[in-house]
Structure formats: C-alpha cells, structure tokens
Amino acid sequence: MILERIDKPARISKLGNDELEKLAEEIRQRIIEVVAKNGGHIAPSLGTVDLTLALLSVFDPLKDRVVWDVGHQSYAWKILTGRNERFDTLRQYGGISGFTNRDESPCDAFSTGHSSTSISAALGIAVARDLNRDNYHCISVIGDGALTGGMSFEALNHTGHLQPHKFIVILNDNAMSISKNVGGLQKYMAKMYASKSYNTLKKQIWDMSSSLPDSIRRRFIYGAQKLEESMMNILVPNIIFEDLGFKYVGPIDGHDIPHLISILKRVKNYMVGPVLIHVVTKKGKGYSPAEKDASGFHGVGPFDNRSGKTACSGKLSYSEVFGNTLCDLAEKQKNIVAVTAAMSAGTGLSNFEQQFSNRFFDVGIAEQHAVTLAAGMATKGIKPFVAIYSTFMQRALDQVIHDVAMPKLPVVFCIDRAGIVGEDGATHQGVFDISFLSLVPNMTILAPSCAEELQAMLAWAAKHEDGPVAIRYPRGTALCRQITLHVFEPGKAEIVSGHSPSDNRVVAFLAAGDALHTAMETAKLLAANGLEPLVVNLRSLKPLDEKLLLALGKSCSHIFTFENGSVIGGVGAHIQQILQLENARVVNFGYPDTFITHGKSDILKGLIGFEPEQLAARVSEILQP
After folding, report:
1. Residue 303 above 70 pLDDT?
2. How much is the pTM?
3. CB of 380 within 8 A of CB of 348?
4. What is the pLDDT, as a whole number, of residue 286?
5. What's the CA gap between 169 and 163, in Å, rounded?
6. How far apart are CA 190 and CA 185, in angstroms?
7. In this predicted structure, what is the pLDDT of residue 408?
C-alpha cells in the first residue's frame, strides 16, 4: 500500500499522478473503515481527500499554516500528517480528536470545532506573520455551508481591506449550501436579471420555443432554467469575491488532483494579494451510501460499512420526541413556526419541515440571525421554536439578551445536546447553557427528566406569552418514567421519593433534567447502607421552587444538587444563594471547571467523577461525622 509509505507529508510531493489517485482510494477506504467503527463526520472528509493531497503536495504543513473550518473535513489531513497509526482511535477517549487540534499535531494550525472561523483565524495568523517578519503561506479551507455564518463574511471583508500577500481562501463548494441555503447571494445578480436587454432576449427565446410540441417545450424550458441557474452559481462567487478584494480562481474540479496541484502551484508562486480558489467537490466521494445521502452521512454513529446502515435502538431520542411533539402542536396552533441553523435533521425537525414547509426556516449556519429572526416574528404574534445545540447557542448570547429577553418576547429555545455529548469532544459538549442563560432576566429555563416531561413543557411553552423560554435536553434516548403530567407548572418541583420535607430527613438530592436518573441511582446505592435521601426533580431551573427549597433548607442537614452542566453558575450555585441563610449545607455535583475531552459519555462521566458509584462515595464521605 502507498499509504504505508507515507511516514511524513513531504513524501506526497514525490508521488506521480497514478500513485496519488491510488493513495486517494486507500485514504477513503481507511476513513470508511474507522468511521464505520467509531462514528464521525464521514461525508465531508471523503469529499476533501483529493484536495488534501493537492495541498500537501504544494505546501509544507509544518511551515505554511492551513486552517480547516470546523475540522470535520480534515480526516485525510490527520492521516497524512503523522496520525495514520493512531487513526483507529478517532474520537475515542485518549485517542485523536474528530477535529483539528493544536495540542495533537504541529501540522494543525488552529483548533476548531465551530463553523465559520477559519478565515478569521488564518487572517490573524497572517497578520502575526507580517508583524514578526516571517515568510510562509496562510490558507483557509472553508466549506460553502460555513459561508452562511456572518463571521466568515466579516473576515472576507477585512481581508480585502488588509490585502495580505500569501493568503489563500479555498472555498470547498460541495453543492450543499451555496445555491440552496445562501439564497441571498443569488440576489446579487438581480439587476442583471431585471434588466431590459436580458429579459427581452429571454422572452424572444421563450416565444421561439412556443412552436415546439408541449413535451419537448417543457424539457427545453427546464434545460434553459437549469443553465441559467448554473451560470448564476458560477458567476455570483466571482463577482462577490472580486468586489471584496480577492482575486478569484475557479470553479475547479476538486477531484482532479493534477489540476488542483497545478492551480495551487500557480497561485503560490505568481499571485499577490488575497486569492480565493473555488473548488467544487462531491460530499461523500467514493462511498456510494454517503454520496446518495450526504446530509445523513455528514455526522454518523457506527454503521455497517458494506450496506451503510446504522444501528437503531428502537427508542426515540429527545430530538425525535421534540420534533414529533412540535408537529402535533403545530397542527392545532397555526402560529407555531420552527427555526434551525442548518441542523434540521440533527434537531429532529425533518418531519416538521415536510409537514409545514411554509412554517419552517433553516437559516444556515447563522445562530445569531436565527435568534433575532425569531424575535422579529414574535413581535407580530408568531410563536417561534428555535432549535439549536447547546454548544452553538453560545454564539447567539447577545441576541438572546438584547433582542429577545430585554423586550420580553415569547420565543422558545429548544436546546438540544445539553450536557456531555461524547465523541465530538470539548468544542461540542453542552455544559455552559444553564450558566449563561440563568443570568438573563425574563428567561424561563426548564429541564425535562423524561419524554413525558419534554412533551408537557413544549405544550406549556406553546401557550406562554410572558417572555422567552429555554428547554434544555440531552443527546440520546428519551427515557420514559411512566408518569402522567397533564399540565406543566413552572417553578414547581416534583418529590420523586414520595416523602415531604416535613419528614425531617437528613439528606435531600435535588436534580436537574436527566441528572435525575444519576441522582436516583446514587440514592439506591446509599439506601443499601441505610441512607434514604429525599429525591427531588427540579423540572424548572428558573424560576426554582423556592417554597420547597426553603422548607428543605430548614429540615435537612445536607442538600446535594445534581446537574449535567457546569457547577460554576449552574443551578446548584443558585440554590446555594437561596439557602445561604438556612441551616442546610449545600453541595453541588456537576461538571468541573475544565473543558471535557472526547470519548464515550460513560468514560467521560467517570473521568469527572459523575458516575453514581463515585457520587455515592462522596456523599458518604461528606456525611461522616
């Protein structure tokens, strides 16, 4: 195998065209085999194998700085920059990350995980290079979907102003977003399409076609429309990027390795000022299931690499419960709309998109816009449900505060992937949302412990008009507790153990969301040793059930809080504030003040001491006289 001979990137530039093509096949097979076992972002990385080979044939990854946007396009980059032997550990605890990571390799110029950052980062590196009087190239590889993030356009605009030399942006256009998601770009050519000369010519062609038989005329018009659309997609980037101050090169076949190498060499050696190279690739290239369903294979769990089929648990995830419930509510309540930021499938909104297409809004990778768009709709009686992953919600905090909470608009934030998400690692763990949302006035924060509670909370939020609501729920299967919750009431907790605080119990466990199950398992372990804590399901994190909390503060010696989030600024910290004048000692269990690495969730929880056995031991230690 050629791949076995590539012990360092410099070897790639010595290969002939036939060897490069063979190496590309071997890399794709390597990616498929590992991702089938570990899960990961397979379709984006398969699409950039040829581009990666071309980059490494022309540039030195230890000197030149290549910044991959998001990083889920970079599996081939990892394999070819000294990590092939460890690639089997991809996304596993103690193994290599699913994204680029400066701590992992000197070839990784920037640590990434969130979208639309690569041009800003590469420009910052280029500015530092010039200030330090160094000499190397800075390259940003950004997918077309990432251009829906406003930050990327801010960076393009600033680059055009600074006009740095040896600065290259490679737009990886895989036909997933430029023509579909970023419809606003097409309006750039509106003047031409509205012009008298263009429309006169178009009418003449249409009139000429009227003499054709209907079946032929329909095909003729369809073909002409497709040609018009194709011309727009080719010309719009050219015009926009030239006007932003870039020299535009493309579009180029992103799977023609010799041609890619030729273009990169020319740009490297002869062009001055910032250059944008428009490369067209096929997402999932080389693996039929991923080519047919690029969206479904964007990020996947383990699957059978022969059939492409993934394993199914047979149970609904929290995302699916959310999506199905919202469809039911929207059937009855006509002002309900759904908003997502390029994550319709991931947030469980695929069915809603099909059933209520005119009430579904995918804004692309633009969380800030999603929030303020929802705010605008809410001013006119529309009920927006904005579904965003916890880790991506961080990007829109100012919009939540300024545009939604301050005017007290009834927007519902459905915060998916709250808590540890596992193999995607530190950039994707949803551990901060309670902390940063709790500080926002007018905000109601809810956390379901099961599918039934999520359904009830969504139904309540659909009718709530007094300010924004955030409902946070984890990744994975939505457990059913077999409870009946006809009407949800915010600020009202549930005593799970069936005892009241007047029983003068020694210890109480207060749990937020799915941490209830951890608290219950911990309580079972302690019950075997004669300690039976009172277990409370908080349900509502803001407002809290202060009446119950104050009663517990008087009747308990110790109160332990459990939450799947940071203990700094978390719900436990707020309970401590409420009970600071009471007798009970409050101890908070949650996630520590650190960024949590990648790996299976149970391993990570053990690593931070959040498994029931560990928590039971800590409780016992604290309660010792």
Report:
1. no
2. 0.73
3. no
4. 65
5. 13
6. 10
7. 96
